[in-house]
Amino acid sequence: MTLALLLAALLAVACVLTVALPFLREPEPESDSLEELDETERHRLELLEARDRALAALKELEFDHRTGTVSDDDYRALVGPLRREAAAALQALEGVRTFVTQVPVGEGRPTRERIS
Amino acid sequence: MAELGRAALIVTLGLTAYALVAGAAAAHVGRRRLALSAQNALVAAFGSTLVAAAVLLAALLRNDFSFVYVAQTTSEALPTAYTVSAFWGGQEGSLLLWLLVLTGFGAAAVRLNRGWARDLVVWVVPVFAAVALFFSFLVVVVASPFATQPAPVDGAGMTPSLQNPYMLAHPPLLYLGFVGLTVPFAFALGALISGRMDERWLVATRRWTLLAWTALGIGQLLGAHWAYEEVGWGGYYAWDPVENAALMPWLAATAFLHSVMIQEKRGMLRVWNVLLVILAFSLSLFGTFLTRSGVVNSIHSFTQSSIGPWFLAFIAVVVAVSLAVVFWRLPQLRSPTKLESPVSREAAFLYNNLLLLALCLAILWGVVYPMLSEAVRGEAVVLGRSYYDFFLRIFGLPLLLLMGIGPLVAWRRASLRSLGTTFRWPSAFALVTGAVLLGLGAGSSVPGLIAYTFASFVAATIVLEFARGTRARKALGAASWPGAFSSLISRNRRRYGGYVVHAAIVLLAIGIAGSSAFDTVAEARLTQGQTMSIADYRLTYESLDERSAANATELRAKLQVARGDRDLGTLEAGKNAYTIEQQISNEVGIRSDPLTGEDLFVIAEQIDPDGTIYLRVFVKPLVNLIWIAGLVFLLGSLIALWPDAREQRRLVERTRDVGVPATR
Amino acid sequence: MPSHRAFGRVYTSAVARKANPARLVIALLVASVLAVFLLYTSIAGGGNPSLAPSDLAGRSGQVQLAGLVVGPVSGDAHAGGLRFRLRDISGPSKARVSIRYAGSVPDLFKVGRHIVLSGRLRNGTFVAEPGSMITKCPSKYVPKAESA
Predict the structure, then answer these.
(1) Which of residues 85-104 of A touch C (CB under 8 A)?
(2) Do C5 and A113 count as a contact with CB atoms less than 8 A apart?
(3) Is the pTM of this model over 0.90?
(4) How far is Cα B358 from Cα B279, in angstroms, rounded to an integer?
């Protein structure tokens, strides 16, 4: 019985320590704020995803065409818009770094105008 | 030692409560150390739950009957393996297992993703903690595994039908599945609350969802196999509410796995995906509620278990809060891309989703209808097997066909003409197969024939995809044909792993169609020396043997099996009488034909004192394909789950580009 | 940048107009699924009422009966029929229904077991559909019921 209580007490102490660990390790940190992405960074992440998506779609279309899933006609019809989308996504990414414009692309939200 | 167990669970309760409050506060106010502390609380909760689990396991292994739970679920004579399985054999222990897996998954999911998705994880922690808090509350207050009593001489023992290897694996696998669905749910809700609606929550949870879905699928197949061999009525699925409890979340998760691909590729269906994952999670909670509360047959048995109302209340809270959050974030969830054509891969996935969901809801309706009709009309009306079979055919057969069509349609738009060329050979193959089978007599069951024809269509498309893909890779410069094949799979793991899983479903469909639409049954009363015949088999009753095993007396009728003029050996069927549990179990005799995959299934229904036996015999064609399908399913999932180094690199590059530090 | 915004609006509305046929197809599909469902439930007529032995008196037609087995059990399920009685699972009612059952008898069947049968009342005896007996597993999750 006493062994059980002792082990229980040890467990409780270990858990409290684990929970308090961040505060014990850094009693006076320089910054305690969560590293959050601000609007621009978040938008940039979305644009990166859009770019990767467009590039992956192009790659898949090429492969599907090669295996014969997509016919020549369909391929010709689809590859144009996909290439334009990928180009626009790359262009949009360049844009976010310096100044921001409204980009009429399929993915990505319209951005705030900002010149920095 | 029970005090240690109880204390450990109280510690878990406190930790999950802290993780909920501190996690939510930290996320809202943006305090890093507090967020980290909440994460640690989740990890510590796993630790303390592990201690509690160890206490229970130790008590089981040393047959400590002062634990009420141990006395209720085991006995001295019970073999060790089954003593271990008693951990999840009863209400309290299985809840503890659920909590253990839950805290384990939570700790792992949060730790694995904390580096690259920190702003998302910070909200996932309180959501996960809330679910864990509910289950810790249950095991501490409502159904504690650590109740004690003055130890009786021996325990009550385990139901004989549960003393079976399948029962060792079936519940834990199902729990991995049910609990695993909590991870995508928590991430989805975390993404919604935090406003981080980018695709990271999908990428973070993709493998968890696949793992949970696979575990749920394999768990159900094991359960079906157990029902087939052990319960032995000649079938493997009875549309029992407890069986449906696992099928419904699996169907919702299947739909989710497919629609997630659309969101990843085209950014569409964001609202749909979130709603689907909430549905899958709620169904897994509902499923476990059905199994435990005793609501199953009629509302009257509701009062037998006190756990029911708690579960219902929790499910209601989960659904209400989730829907409120979705509604709150609805403007941000709208995707700018739209469906371009009803003939496209997106559309095919959408049709697949609708069919899966329709089947899932039809089953749900069948399960709750008795409860609803009792509440409304005062009389419980039960929907029988024919209801479920009807909807399985009406929604399942088109789904089967779609499985062959979907992967071969282009994204965005496909012209009907290109579809014609793509499907020329598979359609021809399917029609020829159908005609041949019709000639062989498969016309006796129209749904069965349709199932066979559709299955051959899908099989042809899968073979075609692998062949054309390998050829394309060879043209792109692979060294050899095997090299082309393996590089094809390793470069497109999810796609080709998915094709293997589809192949497994095809096998499953063929097995189910064969064994249910084209089976034969015969009954006969035999005295020693008499013969009965079924299909092209002949069974002769040779002798009746009585043996004693560790905890039972076994009575077996020995039968000589012959087909045509070939002797196929002997088969035994009979009954076991378990001494301690005072129960009799049916032990069926099964002879599986390795060439045709069919089973000769013998049930010794009745054994009279004078040695006369009453037999019920089935011939079930192709039934073994169902179990083989399980292995193929596992293979396909493993291929899809396998980590992809290229993909990982791309993910890390993206986050580094944006400026999120890699680890902390 | 007014020109960009105008372009954006024209673009999205153009896409929306082009997407309408797909939306229509989806809507039709959902409607047909619902139609199938309603058709079935209205034609096949739903299911059978599930009753307790105390509710059975005077009922005609196919019903499902759920109750606890009361001895003595006599007869042969494969020759002439197994005979026993059924009582309510819980509650004060003393009603006992005579059952005649033919067909497979599940292993768990014994006096005191919770079973479910389909059949109809004929001349005071409930004649069960052959093979319709289901026994409820002595549930591991529900506290053991009081013995009959």
Answers:
(1) 101-102, 104
(2) no
(3) no
(4) 13
* Whole-number pLDDT of residue B54: 96
Domain membership flag for residue C115: yes
Please state, as a whole number, how many other Cβ atoms lie within 10 Å of the Cβ of residue B148: 20
Q: How far apart are CA B91 and CA B540, in angstroms?
A: 45
Tell me if B606 and C50 make a contact (CB, 8 A cut-off).
no
Residue B610 sits at the chain C interface (C-beta within 8 Å): no
Q: What value, to the nearest 5°, has the Cα angle with vertex B388 and ends B385 and B390?
A: 105
One-letter amino acid of A32: D
Place of tokens 């993703």: B113
- Inspect the interface and report whether the beta carbons of C19 and B339 lie closer than 8 Å: yes
* Range of the structural domain that residue C90 is part of: 50-135
Chain B, 291 to 320: residues with Cβ < 8 Å from chain C are: 291-292, 294, 297-298, 300-301, 304-305, 307
Residue C84 lies in a domain: yes
Q: CB-based contacts of C34: which residues, under 8 Å, 6+ apart? A: none
Is B468 within 8 Å of B408 (Cβ atoms)? Answer: no
Cα distance between residue C19 and residue B661, in whole Å = 41
Segment B170-196 mean pLDDT = 92
Residue C44 has a pLDDT of 61
The three-state secondary structure class of A113 is coil
Residue of C135, C139, C146 for testing the chain B interface, max B β-carbons within 10 Å: C139
The type of residue at C120 is R
Number of domains in chain A: 1
Q: Which of residues 235-264 of B touch A (CB under 8 A)?
A: 264
Strand-pair category, C63-76 with C48-51 = parallel
Residue B578 pairs with which residues in a beta bridge? Answer: B552, B583
Q: C146 in a domain, yes or no?
A: no
Distance, first Cα to last Cα, chain B: 39
pLDDT band of residue A107 (cuts 50, 70, 90) is very low
Which candidate, B625, B613, B610, places its Cα nearest to that of B532?
B613
Strands B599-607 and B613-620 come out as antiparallel
> In the block, which residue shows the tokens 């209808």?
B369
Query: In the structure encoding, which two tokens stand for residue B525, read together?
Result: 């009363």
| pLDDT tens, residue by residue, C57-81 | 888 888 888 888 987 888 888 888 8
Cβ contact, residue pair B603, C104, below 8 Å: yes
**pLDDT tens digit sequence for B46-104:** 999 999 999 999 999 999 999 999 998 888 888 888 999 999 988 899 999 999 999 99
Would A17 be classed as within a structural domain? Answer: no
Both C31 and C90 in one domain: the answer is no
Residue C25 to chain B, least CA–CA distance (Å): 7
Let me know the angle formed at the C-alpha of B399 by B394 and B404, rounded to the nearest 5 degrees.
140
CA distances from B27 to B116, B205, C140 (A): 16, 20, 41
User: Is A1 domain-assigned?
Assistant: no
Q: B339-352: string of b/e by CB count within 10 Å (b at 16+)?
A: bbbbbbbbbbbbbb
Per-domain residue ranges of chain B: 1-163, 520-620
Residues 6+ apart with CB under 8 A from C100: C75, C81, C82, C83, C125, C126, C127, C128
Residues C85-92 have a mean pLDDT of 85
Round the CA-based radius of gyration of chain A to a whole number and report it.
Answer: 26
ipTM of the modeled complex: 0.77
The CA distance from B45 to B57, in Å, is 18
**How does strand B566-578 pair with strand B583-587?**
antiparallel
Cis peptide bond prior to B594, omega within 30° of 0: no
Least confident of A102-116, B66-80, B547-561: A102-116
